[in-house]
Amino acid sequence: MSVHTREIIHFHPAAAKARDLRRPIVALESSVLAQGLPIPANGEADRRCRAAILGRGAFPCITAIARGVPTIGLEGADLERFLAREGVSKVSSRDIPWAMANRLDGATTVAAALSMCTAAGLEVFATGGIGGVHRGAPFDESADLAELARSPVVTVCAGAKSILDLPATVERLETLGVTVIGYRTDEFPGFFTSRSGLSLSASADTPAEIAAAYRASRALGRPSAILVVQPPPADSALDADVVETAVTVALAEARVAGVRGAGVTPFLLAAIDRATGGRSLATNLALLEANAALAAQIAVELSRGG
Ligand code: PSU
Ligand code: MN
After folding, report:
1. Each residue's pLDDT tens digit, 120-171
2. pLDDT tens digits, residue range 26-59?
């Protein structure tokens, strides 16, 4: 990592200390807090993810653009602004330079968080679900996929939401050379649901197996992510038919409202929440916590060397 990069990306003092002591670190995104989840569930997600990571011996670092500064470790008053969801824009990787130049508060999507991890040398990242290929026309594919192809970061998620075209998303991950490993599953999860009917070619039972695959990928000089997918915790997963009905309603609402571009994903998430009578929110929080916990275990494993 160049000195230059370290100056441009601000590490919160506690995050800098964790980095300098070579403690295991888990990076987190902030779009899920400022756009993905409503208040006060976003605060609960923040607390539960941090506790899950700290409890497993790793250090949590939220990524964000805070008043124009790319920040690893969003804390204090900066964090409070993001949790209040006011004046915070959704920032994908391409939006980072503009947010910096204009001193904006920008909440990082998976794509933006990955590009910050790569620039800052962070190796493990946890999120809820990745973006992907949207259903139907007009063409809409999340920058998360392209960024996974050029970010050598272990990315832990619960797959991609069934608001997306999951078969197309899985195909694009293959085309882009992203290694996908199921954690204790051999199916790509559907975020709210454990199963999608899409089978995976790799499945791991331990964090050590994932760490070994990551080391192999790095040793080869591959630029891409290791995408770890685990189903939502069994007691919080929703039934596929409930989700499919909610998705149909959400997509119809989005069509009527005429939402486009970056607004599509937050709109659909809110519509799903309404359509499931809030049940999807509990699933969302449970899987975020579970993903943070698994990411911490992988980070600890990686810090042991091997
Ligand atoms: N999936 C979720 N919750 C979220 C998102 C995805 O379960 O909040 C957010 C993530 O930050 C993801 C982004 O990177 O939506 C994808 O948006 P888009 O489709 O505009 O790339
Ligand atoms: Mn899009």
Report:
1. 999 999 999 999 999 986 789 999 999 999 999 999 999 998 899 999 999 9
2. 999 999 999 999 999 999 999 999 999 999 999 9
Residue nearest atom 20 in ligand 1 by C-alpha distance: 262
Whether 90 is catalytic is: no
CATH of the domain at 154: 3.40.1790.10
Q: Do 27 and 122 meet the contact criterion of CB atoms below 8 Å apart?
A: yes
Distance 136 CA to ligand 2 centre (A): 12
Give the total number of structural domains in the chain.
1
Residue 278 lies in a domain: no
Whole-number Å distance between alpha carbons of 303 and 22:
7
d(CA 1, CA 27): 17
215 Cβ partners below 8 Å, 6+ apart? 302, 306
Nearest residue by C-alpha to atom 18 in ligand 1: 142
* pTM, 2 dp: 0.96
Tokens of 278: 């809030």
Atom of ligand 1 nearest to the CA of 90: 11
Q: For residue 264, what are the CA distances in angstroms to 148, 243, 291?
A: 20, 18, 24
Within-domain flag for 268: no
